[in-house]
Amino acid sequence: MKRMAWVLAATVLGLGIAHAAGKDDAARAIAAAVAKMKTAAALEDQWTPTVAAFKAAKAADAAGDYAKAEASAKRAEALAAASIAQARSQKHLWRNEVPR
């Protein structure tokens, strides 16, 4: 019962529960990163740190370090999401900078 309470508390607080990343976890994270990176590329706003994090994820995956691969892929996905948000906001914000 105590363990269940800790799991519930960790979930509610957003702490998550540590797990050993496996090959499937790394593959899912890499696939999610690829999807976000494609969207960023379509918006012509691909950041170089995103590409570097993705390359690190692929290298770690190839070396069998799935925990590092998952972490790097999640970083690449987060960076791609940030670049997407930036591209979308700049698409509208530039109008405020143009004199009328």
TrEMBL record:
Keywords: Signal. It comes from the Bacteria. Residues 1-20 form the signal peptide. The keyword Signal applies. The keyword Signal applies. This is SoxXA-binding protein SoxK. It comes from Acidiphilium cryptum (strain JF-5).
